[in-house]
Design a protein that fits this description.
By secondary structure, the chain is an alpha/beta fold. It has 2 domains: 32-312, no CATH class; 343-484, no CATH class. Helix content is 57%, strand content 7%. It has a 5-stranded mixed β-sheet. Strands 1-2 form a two-stranded antiparallel ribbon. The radius of gyration is 24 Å and the shape is globular. The two termini are 48 Å apart.
Length: 490
């Protein structure tokens, strides 16, 4: 049932998908995502759907690939957990899978097209499967497949070298005395692969970067750091509370109680913690940034909490209970809302563009269209509208797009799901003084955002609005087009 949602009503959305409209949909190649000026390098993002576009450019074809990825990853995780821990815990495995697929990071990655974490998770899952199976079987085919999958994952997301290199380095160092030659070779190849990626990144991107790297504008600010911690806590509580607590408990057990280091499972935790710290240092946040560590984290948590009985530890219990509460009232509602939002928004967006295309083409005058609710440098919705209008054959001499605070004396106002303004009765009452609604497309059914995040945001907007940049509380998938009232004709 969950998987079928990928296909139902699939369409191109307002965020990112305009890149597809100006490339794949018109027979051009999708560019490699390399942005030296801000230090970004994830060239393989979208190249899988570029291959699919040779067969079909229908949105359903692209989302069918997401569906295949979804089933394949779930299959790998369940098979790996069953192999490691037996069939007695299968109900627990399915609960962990539900936590994964209902997390906002997963729903956002799988119900959109150009999110690099999806490809990174796919190949990291293949790598983890091969790597863990290899520890027992030590077949050459698993080694080759594992190294190749790990290498591919690095080119989907810059931070993936931490997970691949961190695990292999930890496993090699702390398992050196007990590892076989083949196990050491596998680790060395993974370490060299990570180093090779770093050299590529340094030579192609870092030395050519501009004045500011991605995220440098907020990195180091206390308020931004606290906001980042709060955001990750509400979307990824198991990653922010349970994994670090498990890491500290293990460290204490190893140092104080002389427990033996487990090169594999401690390595999974170690690499995951490094990954979290990297994003805290970068000072950036999004729902899907920590998604890859779920592959490592699920395996490590099952091993230590059940096999090693760490569940009885009081600190683990507190972290687990806190994580469950935050997931239940924070992540889970947000995940459901994300599914609803990313199913409704593309359909409503394309219907709005269809109306706007006809309206512009039937107009005798050049129209000034204001995209309302776009603040600061976040003008991606404006770019998206422009690119899709061009794709639909609208001459750009027939319209001008504007954004910002001033919407007065514009021919049309286009309100999208990406607006950063709180869409309420007061907002519309002000607009409808000089404008009238000529098109409206709302979601047939939408799951409201009842998460902790939404409640906290509502309180801040009410009492401390200066701390909130985006005042769109409900984050609905609704679109409106308004026309300036002409006293002579309206």
């Amino acid at each position: 049932m969950y998987g079928l949602l990928f296909l139902v009503g699939s369409n191109f959305g307002i965020i990112d998908d305009y890149v597809i409209a100006e490339t794949l949909l018109i027979g051009k190649d999708l560019p490699y995502f390399i942005m030296e000026s801000i230090g970004r390098y994830f060239p393989l993002n979208g190249q899988d759907i570029a291959i699919i576009s040779k067969v079909s450019i229908a949105p359903s074809a692209f989302y069918f690939y997401n569906l295949l990825q979804f089933f394949f990853i779930i299959y790998l995780i369940v098979k790996l957990l069953t192999y490691l821990f037996g069939k007695n815990y299968k109900n627990l495995f399915y609960i962990l899978i539900l936590i994964l697929i209902l997390s906002p990071g997963f729903t956002t990655s799988w119900f959109r097209l150009l999110v690099p974490e999806r490809g990174a998770v796919l190949f990291l899952s293949v790598f983890a499967y091969c790597y863990i199976y290899f520890q027992d079987k030590q077949s050459n085919s698993l080694l080759i497949m594992g190294v190749v999958a790990a290498a591919i994952s690095l080119f989907y997301k810059e931070t993936m070298f931490i997970l691949v290199g961190g695990l292999s380095l930890y496993h090699f160092i702390f398992g050196y005395r007990i590892l076989t030659i083949k196990q050491k070779i596998f680790d060395i190849l993974l370490i060299l692969t990570s180093i090779f990626w770093l050299l590529i990144y340094y030579s192609l991107v870092y030395i050519n970067k501009g004045e500011a790297m991605y995220g440098e504008g907020v990195s180091g600010q206390l308020s931004s750091f606290l906001k980042q911690i709060l955001s990750f806590s509400l979307s990824d509580p198991f990653a922010l509370f349970l994994l670090p607590t498990l890491f500290v408990v293990r460290l204490y057990a190893i140092i104080k109680n002389n427990e033996r280091i487990n090169p594999l499972y401690d390595g999974l935790i170690f690499a995951s913690i490094l990954y979290i710290l990297a994003y805290l240092k970068l000072g950036i946040y999004n729902y899907y940034y920590l998604l890859p560590i779920y592959i490592y984290g699920i395996i490590a948590i099952v091993f230590f909490l059940l096999k090693k009985r760490y569940f009885s530890n009081i600190y683990i219990k507190i972290a687990l209970i806190l994580s469950i509460i935050l997931f239940t009232f924070g992540s889970f509602p947000l995940g459901l809302h994300s599914i609803s939002h990313y199913k409704n928004t593309p359909y409503n967006y394309q219907k709005s563009l269809s109306f706007l295309t006809d309206y512009i083409n039937n107009s005798d005058n050049k129209l000034v269209i204001h995209i309302d609710g776009i603040k600061g440098s976040n003008n991606e919705p404006v770019v998206s509208v422009d690119k899709f209008l061009s794709y639909y054959g609208v001459d750009n001499d027939k319209y001008t797009l504007t954004y910002g605070e001033d919407y007065n004396n514009k021919d049309l106002i286009f309100i999208t799901s990406s607006t950063m303004i709180n869409i309420n009765d007061e907002y519309f009452s002000n607009l409808l003084i000089n404008y009238k609604i000529i098109f409206m497309k709302k979601a047939t059914f939408e799951v409201p955002d009842f998460s902790f995040r939404a409640l906290i945001k509502s309180a801040l907007i009410k009492y401390k609005p200066v701390y909130v940049n985006n005042h769109n509380i409900t984050h609905k998938s609704d679109f409106y087009i308004l026309k300036k009232i002409d006293d002579k004709n309206d």
